[in-house]
Design goal:
Number of strands: 10
Strand content: 15-25%
Structural class: alpha+beta
Radius of gyration: 19 Å
Largest sheet: 6 strands, antiparallel
Shape: globular
């Protein structure tokens, strides 16, 4: 009797291992890892002369990569950075479902053109200078892995926050 149940149970367990192996490394059961496991509030607007804040660790290491840790937004480029000037701001309209209340998965991803789509056909293009930060993100993982924020320092741009890594990138909304 025991062997009759042991074989199907063993097969079922073996079939679940590949699915478990595809989760991002270190992922917690609630799917959130970055920023100590919770989604940050939107970043505050900074003055035009503000420099990117760099995170200094106790052991002397520094981290200047754009990320959120303990609800502080690190590595955000200067507000007056010329790369973010857009002649026709919001040319494709505004994306309005922003902040921690809205978590998204990626419905489609175009790696060659650095574009992605949220559910409902809302498309974004990743800033060329931020692509190296986002190239290895798990764009096709299951779950709601991203949060969008209005960039308070660069009008016309959005910040796309990766809940698993705590990192963020800049993207332009292309409409739906």
């Amino acid at each position: 009797m025991r062997t009759r149940f042991a074989v199907p149970l063993t097969l079922a367990l073996l079939m679940t291992f590949p699915a478990l192996a595809q989760r991002p490394a270190g992922e917690r059961h609630d799917g959130v890892q970055g920023n100590q496991g919770h989604i940050p509030q939107a970043p505050a607007h900074r003055e035009g002369h503000a420099r990117p804040e760099i995170e200094h660790h106790e052991d002397g290491r520094i981290n200047s990569v754009p990320h959120v840790n303990h609800d502080r937004w690190y590595g955000h480029d200067r507000p007056n950075d010329r790369r973010y000037v857009i002649p026709q701001r919001f040319d494709h309209g505004r994306f309005e479902h922003l902040g921690p209340s809205y978590r998204y998965h990626i419905e489609r991803f175009d790696r060659d053109h650095h574009r992605f789509w949220f559910p409902g056909g809302f498309s974004f293009e990743i800033a060329a200078w931020d692509w190296p930060l986002a190239a290895d993100w798990c764009w096709d993982c299951d779950g709601d892995n991203f949060v969008a924020y209005d960039d308070p320092d660069h009008p016309g741009w959005y910040l796309i926050y990766n809940v698993h890594t705590g990192a963020y990138i800049h993207a332009q909304y292309l409409g739906s």
